[in-house]
Design goal:
22% helix; Ubiquitin-like (UB roll); alpha+beta; 5-stranded mixed beta sheet; 3 helices; 98 residues
Length: 98
């Protein structure tokens, strides 16, 4: 079971509080995790990734194990600590401006 922490506005949209447990079949990659998350919470489709291209939206970042995984390939395996449920995957809305 993978643990996911969503930003507040997406927790509100998905009507969840705290961490979201997500069951992922097969290898745990960004793509497979986000596919499982969107299947479990269809209202999140298009909020983290573009509908058609499935590319990460520009102001969304992924962090785990104190690393920015945002620019890793979609099919790269997530860290073992995330797969084992020891560490959560954080989905963060980045801020811009000055």
């Amino acid at each position: 079971m993978v643990r996911v922490i969503l930003p507040q506005h997406l927790r509100t949209l998905a009507r969840v509080q705290g961490e979201v447990p997500v069951e992922v079949a097969g290898p745990v990659t960004q793509r497979s995790l986000l596919d499982a998350l969107e299947a479990q919470y269809p209202m999140l489709r298009g909020t983290i990734r573009e509908h058609v291209t499935k590319r990460r939206r520009p102001f969304i970042r992924f962090f785990a194990c104190e690393e920015d995984l945002s620019h890793e390939p979609d099919d790269a395996l997530l860290p073992q600590a995330v797969v084992d449920g020891v560490e959560p995957l954080l989905i963060v809305g980045a801020m811009a401006g000055g």
